[in-house]
Design goal:
Blueprint: E1 22-23, H1 32-45, H2 53-66, E2 70-74, H3 77-87, E3 93-97, H4 102-109, E4 114-118, E5 140-146, H5 155-164, E6 168-172, E7 180-181, E8 184-185, E9 192-196, E10 209-213, H6 216-226, H7 247-258, H8 260-278, E11 284-286, E12 300-304, H9 314-323, E13 326-327, H10 342-345, H11 354-359, E14 363-366, H12 374-389, H13 391-399
Parallel strand pairs: 1-13, 3-4, 3-5, 5-6, 6-9
Antiparallel strand pairs: 2-10, 7-8, 9-10, 11-12, 12-14
Helix pairs in contact: 1-7, 2-7, 3-4, 3-6, 8-12
Bound molecules: ligand T4K.
């Protein structure tokens, strides 16, 4: 039973609709026995990290699954982005979207590379190739595209811009594991691609990530940089860091891999349930996935058009949902360019990010994954429908000054 009267909304003091929090990014856990078996094995072997057998097995399996020559498992995607940018020799300026998790920008800024923020296409939420060339300067050395929500950026356009201007092209594919472009798995495009296997990703290794590439020399360099620059037992040939994936993370990743099809099936089912449940709610539009491609359906993203939602803007909707224990998120509000240090370092940037500035005000992510059931999705959708249908009264009452 959904809320019937606005007095029954938790923002007005009534009990929350859901007794327990429904989170975005709840981890998918595969077969526990399988994981525990691997962990026991690892403990018996006393090989816990530093390119152990689970990491080697994982790298081989992922490279085969993605159809790439090299997969280098890493401790997380942020360090993987840093190492890849460095191994590619990026310096000066690199063009990236502002509409991304701040790790994309930090990975560059951390090594004194200036992230130059480019606007996005409002339909795809991905970097808009038509706005890139204006941002290229003599200092530009690369383009870093992000496959936001696992929806692939316009790879072909980015590739031709990169070729024309002799720039390196890398992708932050943190969201795009098991997604495809023209039928080819993400992982083999550009000079290199970087995945995240963080707990919140549909395929997780607790913390973790990977770099994939078809470039043998680059792969070798990344392997060395991942391990302090070592090229032998006591020979260091490059500056390096500690980007290694531990065996326990690889054990989790191998276990997740066994349930990959199930995770995708659940996400897809949830996506279709949301699509059905949200249908016809004025001003609530869910992003679409291209069914001709492979998708992981990990993100249920809605856009709120407050001109049509009876005065319910995105932030008020999020507040009401939170009060009902639906812990929706506002990724990637307010955009990297509005976060420090970028806001202070590049104060004029917002002037050129017209679409990004609007997008960050209308996007919400809703809970999905193996932890969310069909009934819960139906209830969340009914709640949103109720909120929008009664939007004028709710917003009037919410904004009424207290006496
Ligand atoms: N590039 C892109 C485009 C990315 O989205 C990310 C990461 C990266 C690069 C960097 O990847 P990594 O270096 O992390 O491998 C979370 C994740 O920590 C982050 O990995 C992810 N993107 C980002 C979109 O989301 P926060 O700060 O929002 O996390 P937090 O703690 O608020 O948790 C998010 C949600 O997940 C909450 O609803 C709670 C839930 N949760 C989280 C964890 C860790 C759980 O239910 N259980 C858990 O164990 O960044």
């Amino acid at each position: 039973m959904s809320k019937q009267k606005i007095e029954e909304l938790a923002i007005f003091g009534a009990p929350s609709f859901f007794s327990e929090n429904l989170y975005v990014g709840r981890p998918n856990i595969g077969n526990r026995e399988s994981l525990l078996f691997r962990i026991n094995d690892m403990l018996d072997r006393r090989w816990l990290t530093n390119n152990g057998p689970f990491v080697e097995e994982l790298e081989k399996k992922l490279a085969a699954f993605l159809g790439v020559r090299h997969c280098i498992a890493m401790c997380n995607a942020t360090v993987a982005l840093e190492v890849t940018a460095r191994a590619l020799g990026l310096h000066g300026e690199v063009i990236i979207p502002s509409f991304t998790f701040v790790a994309t920008a930090h990975a560059l800024q951390w090594q004194a590379i200036t992230p130059v923020f480019c606007d996005v296409d409002p339909l795809t939420h991905n970097i808009d190739p038509s706005k890139i060339e204006n941002l290229i300067t003599p200092r530009t050395t690369g383009i870093l595209g992000v496959h936001v929500w696992g929806r692939v950026c316009d790879i072909d356009a980015l590739r031709s811009i990169a070729q024309k201007h002799h720039l390196k092209l890398m992708f932050d594919a943190a969201h795009a594991f098991a997604c495809s472009h023209h039928g080819q798995m993400i992982g083999g495009f550009g000079n290199a691609e970087v995945f995240s296997f963080h707990a919140t990703k549909f395929f997780n290794s607790f913390e973790g990530g990977a770099v994939t590439t078809n470039d043998d020399t680059l792969a070798q360099k990344i392997r060395e940089m991942r391990n302090f620059g070592f090229a032998g037992l006591d020979t260091v040939i490059n500056v390096g860091t500690n980007g290694k994936m531990s065996e326990v993370s690889a054990a989790m990743a191998l276990t997740s891999l066994e349930s990959l099809d199930e995770f995708i099936a659940v996400n897809k089912k949830n996506y279709l349930e949301y699509q059905k449940g949200l249908l016809g709610i004025p001003g609530i539009n869910m992003i679409a996935y291209d069914f001709a491609e492979k998708n992981n359906f990990q993100y249920i993203v809605i856009e709120v058009d407050e001109n049509v939602t009876n005065n319910i803007n995105r932030d008020l909707l999020v507040k009401i949902l939170h009060a009902e224990n639906v812990l929706a998120r506002r990724y990637f509000y307010p955009g990297c360019h509005q976060m420090e240090p970028y806001r202070a370092l590049y104060p004029q940037t917002d002037l050129s990010l017209f679409e990004t500035e609007k997008l960050v005000l209308r996007v919400i992510q809703l809970p999905t994954g193996t932890n969310v059931g069909k009934q819960e999705i139906a209830d969340i959708c009914e709640l949103i429908r109720f909120i929008v249908n009664n939007g004028r009264e709710i917003s009037k009452r919410y904004n009424r000054p207290l006496v």
